Amino acid sequence: MSDTLLSVRGVETYYGNIRALAGVDIDVKRGEIACLIGANGAGKSTLMMTICGDPQARAGTITFEGEDITRLPTHRIARLRIAQSPEGRRIFPRMTVYENLQMGASLDNLKYFDEDVEKIFTLFPRLKERQAQRGGTLSGGEQQMLSIGRALMARPKLLLLDEPSLGLAPLIVKQIFDAIKILNKEQGLTVFLVEQNAFAALKLSNRGYVMVNGKVTMSGTGMELLANPEVRAAYLEGGRH
Amino acid sequence: MEYFIQQLVNGLTLGSIYGLIAIGYTMVYGIIGMINFAHGDIFMLGGFAALIIFLVLTSVFVGLPTVLLLLLMMAAAMLTAALWNWTIEKVAYRPLRGSFRLAPLITAIGMSITLSNFVQVTQGPRNKPIPPLVSSVYNVFGISISLKQIVIVVLTTVLLTVFWYVVNKTALGRAQRATEQDRKMAALLGIDVDRTISITFIMGAGLAAVAGTMYLMYYGVVVFTDGFIPGVKAFTAAVLGGIGSLPGAVIGGLLIGLIESLWSAYFTIDYKDVATFSILAIVLIFKPSGIFGRPEVEKV
């Protein structure tokens, strides 16, 4: 529980000349759920993509299991078993649900596919019903499930989830968060998630980070942050009129 | 009626060749959104490689069986064309990826000119003849079908079946389709996008090279300008069928072949290309995305 899986140190990322990340430090330990909360445009998704090398960090280092991955191309990072369900879900629209899941299992050349796909279908029974349907025809919630399922098919050591609750009905959000909790508890999966739904995310997480304008301004356990008056004012109570 | 069917057979043969070339245009467009204008010259280069290996083999070994000879010609053509197309992509297109949209288009035209001039300089500007390899002609209910035509249609069918299988049923094909639909996401799943694009260029070149070999066998000559007109027609076929769509490329190729031979049969042959391109223009007015093309809007 104590060794660091992912370590981000002083990372700066630019889009052209615009600095999106201004020296970010974050640690994710093996077996934990860590979350990053922050407002729109704070740089949360940029951090997720920077971890995966697209765009690459202009300064700072990212290490995964002790290996420096800052300059690796995206597909090499993925092959270290960092799987991401990215912002906007990015389902392959003209591939079936089943093929999308097969894409997730590309790393092992479908070696564990049958076994793993059953697990995904147990986790998200909706996907089983829709398996022959094209990704582009799914509803938002179904696409989110597929995106997470596809990431899980890679047998990740680290699962990156970018706003799994975005635009979804509360019931489905609960279903997805429950699924994350189960995966973490039962399989010891390490999860790093970005959320605007701060309350649910902090409740779920062992550790939380708060990001403002490309910098991490606060960190602590999920419970600490939930109790922190600044966090409450900025991210929790404001959102619950 | 017999005359009509005869023209259908001829059109089908020509259309098969266009279809094979068109696939290369459409695949490359699908995966990186550019028109590889050098693709027609890759086809011509395939024809030359086939001719050269034919000349070498027939002068070294006497009495090689025709089937073996054809297979070796195709292998040489595929190898040469694949190597060229792979190199072109690497040196001329890849560095411009992410540049403005016209840049790769202009380099592609440049590569096309480079290739045809290279062949002109090294092989000479004149028509290069090849002796007839397969000359049997069968008479079926008053329609004469040559063995050449049968070989072309059968070979095209086999290749398209294999190709369809690779694209739709294998991990490589899935990686290609994924790269086509969302390059960023494909990389996030561990797909080596650059490699996938290279393989696409190699596959397209392979099919064009077979088409080049068959074109050489069918017409009995090859010349350095051969990349242009068949290339433009195959490109037209790809657009007609809906650029980016694989069945579209094949259907488009067959249609262009049929239009061309039927027009030549019933109207004046001088205007056959005008007829072909007019039909393209008409189709594009009513269906701008081509026959099988999908509209740009997509729910994501």
How is this structure best described in words?
The complex is a heterodimer of chains A (241) and B (300). Chain A has 241 residues and is an alpha/beta fold. Helix content of chain A is 38%, strand content 27%. Chain A has a domain at 1-80 and 157-166 and 190-241: Rossmann fold, CATH 3.40.50. Chain A is built from 10 helices and 10 strands. A 6-stranded mixed beta sheet of chain A has the order 6-7-8-3-9-10, with helices on both faces. Chain A has a 4-stranded antiparallel beta sheet with strand order 2-1-4-5, covered by helices on one side. The longest helix of chain A is centred in the C-terminal third of the chain and has 18 residues, at 170-187. The termini of chain A are far apart. Chain B has 11 helices and 4 strands. In chain B, the strands form 2 sheets. A two-stranded antiparallel sheet of chain B has the order 1-4. In chain B, strands 2-3 form a two-stranded antiparallel ribbon. Chain B is globular, with a radius of gyration of 19 Å. The mean pLDDT of chain B is 91. The interface between A and B is medium-sized, with 30 and 20 residues.
SSE string of chain B, helix = H, strand = E?
A: HHHHEEEHHHHEHHH
Query: Which regions of chain A are unreliable across 5 or more consecutive residues at pLDDT < 50?
Result: none
CATH topology of the domain at 1-80 and 157-166 and 190-241 in chain A: Rossmann fold
The major beta sheet of chain B can be summarized as:
2 strands, antiparallel
Adjacency order of strands in the biggest sheet of chain B = 1-4
What share of residues are in beta strands of chain B?
under 5%
- CATH superfamily heading of the domain at 1-80 and 157-166 and 190-241 in chain A: P-loop containing nucleotide triphosphate hydrolases
Distance between the terminal alpha carbons of chain B, to the nearest Å? 50 Å
Domain count of chain B, please report it. Answer: 1
